[in-house]
Amino acid sequence: xxxxxxxxxxxxxxxxxxxxxFGSTPGNGVDDWDGxxxxxxxxxxxxxxxxxxxxxxxxxxxxxAAEGIDLEPIPWLVNGPTGDAFRLPxxxxxxxxxxxxxxxAHAQEEVSQLPVTLMDIVPGQRALxxxxxxxxxxAQIALAMDNRGTLVANDFAPERxxxxxxNLDRLGIVNCxxxxxxxxxxxxxxxxxxxxxxxxxxxxxxxxRRNQGLTSRIGPERSARMAGRQRALxxxxxxxxxxxxxxxxxxxxxxxxxxxLIVAEVLDEQAGxxxxxxxxxxxxxxxxxxxxxxxxxxxxxxxxxxxxxPHLNDTGGFFVAVLEKARDAPSxxxxxxxxxxxxxxxxxxxxxxxxxxTRSHYGIAAEVWQRYRTRRQTRRGLxxxxxxxxxxxxxxxxxxxxxFHRTNSRPPKxxxxxxxxxxxxxxxxxxxxxxxxxxxxxxxxxISPSPAQTRDCGPGQVLVSYRGHTLGVGVLHRxxxxxxxxxxxxxGCTAGA
Length: 497
Prior knowledge:
There is one protein chain. By secondary structure, this protein is α+β, with helices and mostly antiparallel strands. It contains 14 helices and 24 strands. Strands 5, 6, 7, 8, 9, 10, 11, 14, 15 and 18 form a ten-stranded mixed beta sheet that branches. Strand 19 (402-406) and strand 20 form a beta hairpin. The longest helix has 21 residues, at 220-240. The chain is globular, with a radius of gyration of 24 Å.
């Protein structure tokens, strides 16, 4: 049951301490307090970004428009780090669409895409997402790196790591290793990183448009409780950053105690070894960071931070600071002999046979495997990771790359993530579905394909596709029935099929 939206008076009371930041004249744009409160009374629009490893933005827009869904490009995210992004109607559930199941897109709030946009990532850099779950920003970083090289994604709870890995697998991310620890105590043995994202846990005031249950819980006391952890995370990021590297610190809250005051304290501690980079984003209306709060004057350079108030761009609320570490600052020692952290063990004869059987069964060219390393991380089966990926050798790794081949089942089979990753290269045993069959497949129902559909398929496992995009794996029985192997845990996709 959907919760009733908070009364206006309740929102104004909860946020009253920010009233002095706004002007006194209604309707005067940036300083419009009434406009700010009005925006919080409306549900936010949904937003997705394109997975450029699977589809280009015009093709994705065409698939969505063909379903009768209104969408519009987000101007300031055109040609972003992961391709174009689109606004969709408020309440739209992208996770229940077939193209979401196929990893063609990811749902992520518009302003939440800002941090990766400002990381200035290029392939070949070594990157760390210190507070990574549920993984949208991690995937954006990975794709901005061209899904190659070394990205490490960290979070602190097993269930959050599971959600993170699920999104990475659906989107086909192979250049990422996951770790689980308190980010504020992240081991220095990981070595230095060129780019670090600290999307810090916060009081989440900027999400009030979609989570008005927070209204009674926000305030300076909660912000003060969050600040210690946020400070530790940013300090750790500074330690782990390579000289000349970049750190992006972000929150989805309005509270200066969690934003400018955290950054100011770390800048003061670093005494010139770290500096703020003033940034702006064309087409996005922002306010400068605060240089005064609660009677306290702050470092003038904090004006270079970005504040996003919901009424300015019809978004959520957000804060971003971009910091760079001086090139002459101290650096962590790091030694990875001959890439030991990323070296994969040679496959056992049994694993090698399964790999060759899979390649042959689906008609995948041998050279496709050359961009990957294969690693058996668990008894369940095999993982694929980018050939250039180097997990930190001194850390306990939760997982590296994508779990693509389950060998503890009989017969062994590609996982759904593996099918989505490799399906584009398959030339045999592919079965294209109609729209009605697609929906049945996503609901794990049996299908009776026509002889024309199965002409190029033999009995056994097949890759199932719709409009040229792989959906997963099925079993074609000798009776002609296709059994869906779409995973039941991907319930969000099946609900709206």
